[in-house]
Request: fold
Amino acid sequence: MQQPQTQPDPQTNPLIGAEFFSWNKWDACTHCGLCLPTCPTYRELGLETDSPRGRLYLMGTAFRDQNPMPINDDWAKYIYRCLDCRACETACPSGVHFGEVIEEARAIYELNAERPIEQRFWRRLAFKELLPNKDRLDLVFEMMWLYQRLGIRWLVQKLGILKLMGKLGEMESLLPDIPNPFLKHNIREFTPAKGKARHRVGFISGCVMNQVFTETNLATIRVLTENGCDVITPAQQMCCGALHVHNGVRDTALALARKNIDVFEAEDVEAIIINSAGCGATLKEYEALMEHDPVYAERAKTFSSKMRDISEFLAEIEMIPPKGEIKRRVTYDEPCHLVHGQKVQLQPRTILQSIPGLELIELTESEWCCGSAGIYNITQPEMSREILERKIKHIAETDAEIVATGNPGCILQIQLGVKAHRLPMKVMHPIELLDRSYWGIDPLG
Reply:
């Protein structure tokens, strides 16, 4: 497939925001097709328009200034059916930054297209009203906790009410068990190192991560302090904006990024730690997100240079080996935004292999997407389920007792598949296993 040759003139391009499209990144594609076998949607559907190369072609024909393709619902269908898993980036010999380009394309679409009223309502509620507002998010998750704790969820499921609720009922089925909201208060702004402090690091606790995976955050802080780190967790930090960037809500993502840069600039830290792969990829790309901001461009570059996934950081500082035995069979699933987005692959395995007694079983297609992809399992449920089935098939073959993966969305998605197939497995973050080993606690005990 030949790409359109005409490059756009920013002065005549009719689309709002098209002047910021990264044509230099788009033009790096040589159309070789090596990305096609690695693309989950292309493998499932076999359509060129559902491949990275095909989507790049659609961007080119829409964003050029002469006879542009209209960016209508049909165009958006293919752009949004992409998981943004970035497996194509790992396969690409030309180094195309496909994730950044597809996210820019979605941002341009959102600036120029008019979504239906219902979609606009839900998008505004999630991206503008809830995720950027800690107090509202706290309230929502406190209500969810009560909904589960008081048995209302059991009653709703028993009476079959969810089947009558359509899309909302499908979303409720994805709802994980919410931990006690008071648990978050155990995360302090300053947690001192155990023994002599050798490092001073910032910690990004996240928005949904801190609500649903509070225990993982606490385990991360304990592991850092065990390894001689003073840990700073600023109360003023905001949602990282990953879900906003992935879904074209760029204005809010930029505002959140500026706030986070301001907050962490005020702290004298050598590194900023994250335990969520999807969030980490976005935080490391603040530099690209803010390249056109005259005030924050250089500051974003400094911020991104300090970002580390927890496994990546532990490898850099030569982690203190754990001593507690965990005699369990464990398989490791690689989150897309860790292996493809951040190029972090060996470090999580090194952590798992350092745990005495643990048997690490390699997972076939460990780098293949599980179908979570932010909110993809909500917006594209059918395709998400098909991709998940492929992942669960390989997980079942391992006969593992524990599936370890370093991203909250992946944990929830794989838990969903494990439950649906009635597999006797627990899904955990690798850092939780390391924490249990430090404390000598069996994760299944």
In short: Confidence is low (pLDDT under 50) at residues 1-6.
